[in-house]
């Protein structure tokens, strides 16, 4: 099942997901995604751009079984892009950040995930680009996914667990202000103190813990 941007907000993907839950009860597996654009189903007044490359706003599949994964896509080189578009320029970025700050001050929102689209163009190689990407770090992400839809592919490599439900245990594991670990215990301790003393990172970690505690309750 898929839902295009044009079908929102009339087509509510969350309602479809609730219907698909019956497949879980029968031992089948659901995999897919909800794009940011699906928020239009809940808040039709939002001004959200179309998904890049005309991707579905939501895509869900029901599968009969889970098979052990094997990964043949480990290239030792990848194609360098011919041209990269880095998204919003500095002026636009700063003005939008100020707008976010103002909306937080006004009480309109509590938290905003400000993201922007980056794109790259590659020369044709005769092979699928997705088979030639450097997969090293992505393959070790705790919550990674690859959806190969033929003409389009979606790759996710996230360290964050949004939500899990296992009988009566509900868990959320966000990642906010962090520092890399170090093998040297003394250096590692200094890095920890730096994180604890950083006003921005400390505020961010307290905020996300508070937000998720409220959401879970």
Lay out the secondary structure.
Blueprint: E1 2-3, H1 13-25, E2 29-34, E3 58-63, E4 83-85, H2 90-106, E5 119-121, H3 136-139, E6 143-148, E7 153-158, E8 161-166, E9 169-173, H4 185-197, H5 199-216
Antiparallel strand pairs: 1-3, 2-3, 4-5, 6-7, 8-9
Output the radius of gyration.
21 Å
Put simply, the count of helices is 5
Overall geometry comes to: globular
Structural class: alpha+beta
* Physical arrangement of strands within the biggest beta sheet: 1-3-2
Largest sheet: 3 strands, antiparallel
- Helix content range: 25-40%
Mean pLDDT: 84
Give the tally of β-strands. Answer: 9
**Helix and strand element order:** EHEEEHEHEEEEHH
How far apart the termini lie comes to: 31 Å
Summarize this structure as a short list of keywords or feature phrases.
217 residues, alpha+beta, three-stranded antiparallel β-sheet, two-stranded antiparallel ribbon, 9 strands, 30% helix
Brief summary:
The chain is 30% helix and 20% strand.
Overview of the molecule:
The chain is of the alpha+beta class and 217 residues long. The chain has helices spanning 13-25, 90-106, 136-139, 185-197, 199-216, and strands at residues 2-3, 29-34, 58-63, 83-85, 119-121, 143-148, 153-158, 161-166, 169-173. The strands form 4 sheets. A 3-stranded antiparallel sheet has the order 1-3-2, covered by helices on one side. Strands 4-5 form a two-stranded antiparallel sheet. A two-stranded antiparallel ribbon has the order 6-7. The two termini are 31 Å apart. The model has no long low-confidence stretch (mean pLDDT 84).
């Amino acid at each position: 099942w898929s839902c295009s941007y044009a079908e929102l907000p009339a087509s509510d993907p969350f309602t479809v997901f609730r219907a698909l839950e019956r497949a879980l009860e029968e031992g089948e597996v659901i995999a897919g995604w909800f794009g940011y654009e699906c928020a239009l189903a809940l808040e039709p007044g939002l001004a959200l751009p179309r998904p890049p490359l005309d991707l579905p706003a939501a895509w869900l599949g029901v599968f009969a079984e889970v098979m052990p994964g094997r990964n043949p896509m480990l290239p030792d080189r990848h194609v360098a892009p011919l041209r990269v578009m880095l998204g919003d320029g500095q002026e636009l970025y700063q003005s939008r950040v100020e707008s976010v700050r103002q909306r937080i001050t006004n009480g309109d929102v509590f938290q905003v995930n400000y993201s922007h689209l980056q794109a790259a163009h590659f020369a044709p190689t005769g092979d699928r680009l997705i088979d030639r990407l450097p997969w090293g770090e992505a393959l070790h992400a705790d919550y990674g996914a690859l959806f190969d839809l033929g003409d389009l592919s979606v790759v996710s490599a996230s360290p964050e667990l949004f939500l899990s439900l296992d009988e009566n245990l509900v868990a959320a594991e966000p990642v906010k202000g962090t520092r890399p670990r170090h093998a040297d215990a003394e250096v590692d301790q200094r890095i920890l103190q730096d994180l604890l003393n950083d006003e921005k990172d400390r505020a961010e970690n307290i905020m996300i813990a508070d937000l998720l505690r409220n959401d879970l309750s």
